[in-house]
Design goal:
The complex is a heterodimer of chains A (535) and B (182). Chain A is mostly helical and 535 residues long. Chain A has 15 helices and no strands. With 182 residues, chain B is an alpha+beta fold. The chains are: A mainly alpha (535), B alpha+beta (182).
Chain lengths: 535, 182
């Protein structure tokens, strides 16, 4: 069986019919950047509207109709959530960095099922197209899905009689199928295709993080698929799963959704954890502290993450003993997470630390994710949550963990690996400017939202009482700063790709010890036709 | 396929099979989620789900219980629906028969269905309904009024449950909805 039986593909076939994990990873990253811009634009429209009390300018999109503008705000909210979760963070971390580096790090020539890898990617543009189309067709009285990313019944059933919700459901089916197939691919690859000598306990932590993540995907996504299919049949085929009048229960939807939804948020952050371990180790010039603890902390987070879902549902009229259980179980997750934070600190302690851009983003991630984590511990309390549920305190919490935890880990990985992927160095000053603008910007957006939540401002509202105006104004100013930061990132991306300089095999020196640093930058189209020797 | 992938083909397919089984299990779990949910509530009395019985056990205790009756009607249903009696005093174990009255105030024939539960939630495991109108759809022509019976008893096992020592009052609540026209 000759490896050179055919030449490497070129032209449109190289991309549309790709079976190469590096090319597919590249496509995922490009897709994530585009989706991130769209999702960020939606949140920009939202923050612009929220800058001052009153309905400011969304009526420009709805021919002056105020009610339509308020629905449009809900459509933006829904789109922002779905796009950032399913079309930005997951494609970037799992599809992008996962595809690129998991095979290389375990010494494999490619993924277990390269053609299924291709399908996983190309399902995503189809899925996002369906979502975009849904914004243009009738939802409720007005176009688009205005339910929030959670798509709860009965708003999503009897409250949205038009076909927009059905399109959104199909979009989620495709995205879910894409991820399930990706999960199968990663599990088979990691379990079966490690180079000789690479035992599970010698695998790099990024690979561990992807392994735990894809198990979560495999187990949780079918439940989402079931829940949204039941929504579809309630809407179109006369079933009454979530309709009390028919003997059903809207709370059933919430249970099914959050049984998926809670593992989903760990899916969004775990690969970032893996990435941060690599980066902190590289730029502290020290091996990661407590490798086994780090690996099994991620496993623990994944396992316990399956039995805490009802902390998203404390206000549905739940039994107090049930609330007590979920409060306790949710708090338990803080323990393995804390082990990770302290291990990163212990890695840096006594190390020789330099502050290249990837390290800046990694350190930012650790600090800001910790802040998000502690507000999560606050919200874990069923009692406190009675006041905080559906307020901006929750919005602040998950944006700290996601717009700072997950996003900073994506940027950290970007700067860590862009030289390896493209062969070209990133521009130093621009990258640092991007970091500082983003760091300051996202904190100005989201820190004041804690105050808004504590003061009682509900989420998912396009207008608010005057008393909330100051922090809303400040928050929007933060968006503008972040927006500039994003433009700087795009400028840096352009300058990187246009750069005449070249990067060597190992951009970061001795402490970058994983297998990708033994290959050229960029790596050859096919690598490890001869298996590497693992010590 | 290159040589390395060839070597792994068998093990990859084996892992794939295992994963597909796991996937099928998760899909199966959500497919039976409705019966599972119902079963869980029935067995544990969670959320105030009452028990169903054929007839009372015959054991009657000296302990008294006041059973109050509540009624609600969904907006879409133009019916008048109220319990005939506000409450009854029964002995634990004693079989009781009470009535609700429903009247169709509109000018069209409407079918309604009812859901129900009991508070405090922890008492529901011991609240046994022998017969009630809740399991069937009720059709009323315009202006028609009916008396709907409920017969129930409180399981004497309640005396053995320490958590329910202080329960002296149980409230049975029905909500009537308009049934979907098929």
């Amino acid at each position: 069986m000759s490896d050179q039986a055919h030449a490497n593909p070129t032209g449109w076939r190289r991309w549309v019919l790709s079976t190469n994990h590096k090319d597919i990873g590249t496509m995922y990253l490009i897709f994530a950047i585009f989706a991130g811009i769209v999702g960020g634009a939606f949140s920009g429209l939202m923050r612009g509207e929220l800058m001052e009390p009153g309905i400011a300018y969304l009526t420009m999109f709805t021919n002056g109709d105020v009610d339509a503008a308020k629905h449009f705000f809900n459509v933006l909210t829904t789109g922002h959530g779905l796009i950032m979760v399913f079309f930005m963070v997951m494609p970037a971390l799992i599809g992008g960095f996962g595809n690129w580096f998991v095979p290389i790090m375990i010494g494999a020539p490619d993924m277990a099922f390269p053609r299924m890898n291709n399908i996983s990617f190309w399902l995503l543009p189809a899925a996002i197209l369906l979502l975009v189309l849904s914004t243009m067709i009738e939802g409720s009285t007005y176009p688009g899905v205005g339910t929030g990313w959670t798509v709860y019944a009965p708003l999503a059933t009897s409250g949205h009689t038009g076909p927009a919700v059905d399109l959104a459901i199909f979009s989620l089916h495709l995205a879910g199928a894409s991820s399930i197939m990706g999960a199968i691919n990663f599990i088979c690859t990691i379990f079966n295709m490690r180079a000789p000598g690479m035992t599970l306990h010698k695998m790099p932590l990024f690979v561990w993080s992807v392994l735990v993540t894809v198990f979560l995907l495999l187990l949780s996504l079918p439940v989402l698929a079931g829940a949204i299919t039941m929504l579809l049949t309630d809407r179109n085929f006369g079933t009454h799963f979530f309709d009390a009048a028919g003997g059903g229960d809207p709370i059933l939807y919430q249970h099914l959704f959050w049984f998926f939804g809670h593992p989903e948020v760990y899916i969004l952050i775990l690969p970032g954890f893996g990435l941060v371990s690599h980066i902190v180790s590289t730029f502290s010039r020290k091996p990661i502290f407590g490798y086994l603890g780090m690996a099994y902390a991620m496993v623990a987070i994944g396992v316990v993450g399956f039995i805490v879902w009802a902390h998203h549902m404390y206000t549905v009229g739940m039994d107090v003993d049930t609330k007590a259980y979920f409060t306790a179980a949710t708090m338990v997750i803080a323990v393995p997470t804390g082990i990770k934070i302290f291990s990163w600190l212990a890695t840096m302690w006594g190390g020789s630390i330099t502050f290249e851009t990837p390290m800046l983003f990694a350190l930012g991630m650790i600090f800001l994710f910790t802040l998000g984590g502690v507000t999560g511990v606050v919200l874990a309390n069923g009692g406190v949550d009675t006041a905080m549920h559906d307020t901006y305190y929750v919005v602040a919490h998950f944006h700290y963990t996601m717009s700072m935890g997950a996003l900073f880990s994506i940027f950290a990985g970007w700067y860590y690996w862009i030289g390896k992927m493209s062969g070209k160095p990133y521009p130093q000053f621009i990258s640092k400017l991007h970091f500082w603008l983003t760091f300051i910007g996202v904190n100005v957006i989201f820190f004041p939202q804690h105050f808004l939540g504590l003061a009682g401002m509900p989420r998912r509202i396009p207008d608010y009482p005057d008393a909330y105006s100051l922090w809303n104004y400040v928050s929007t100013v933060g968006y503008m700063i972040t927006g500039v930061g994003t433009l700087v990132f795009l400028l840096g991306l352009f300058l990187t790709l246009r750069s005449k300089e070249r990067v060597g095999d190992n951009q970061w020196g001795e402490s970058a010890t994983t297998l990708e640093w033994t290959l050229s930058s960029p790596p050859p189209f096919h690598q490890f036709n001869e298996l590497p020797k693992i010590k | 396929m290159n040589a390395i992938a060839e070597n792994h083909k068998a093990s990859n397919l084996k892992t794939l099979m295992v994963l597909l089984v796991i996937l099928a299990c998760m899909v199966g779990l959500v497919a039976v989620s409705v019966p599972l949910y119902r079963l869980f509530c029935q067995v544990t009395g969670y959320g105030g789900t009452t028990q169903v019985a054929e007839e009372a056990t015959g054991v009657v205790l000296a302990r008294n219980m006041t059973v109050r009756f509540n009624s609600d009607v969904n907006n879409e249903l133009p019916w008048h629906f109220k319990p005939v009696q506000r409450s009854v005093n029964v002995k634990v174990g004693e079989e009781a028969l009470i009535f609700y009255k429903a009247m169709n105030n509109s000018n069209e024939t409407i079918t309604g269905t009812a859901t129900f539960n009991v508070t405090p939630f922890k008492a529901a495991q011991y609240f046994n309904k022998i017969d009630c109108f809740c399991f069937t759809e009720q059709t009323l022509v315009p202006g028609e009024e009916v008396d709907m019976p409920v017969s129930f008893y409180i399981d004497p096992e309640i005396a053995k449950d320490k958590r329910l020592e202080e329960v002296k009052e149980i409230t049975l609540s029905y909500t009537f909805f308009r049934a979907e026209e098929d």
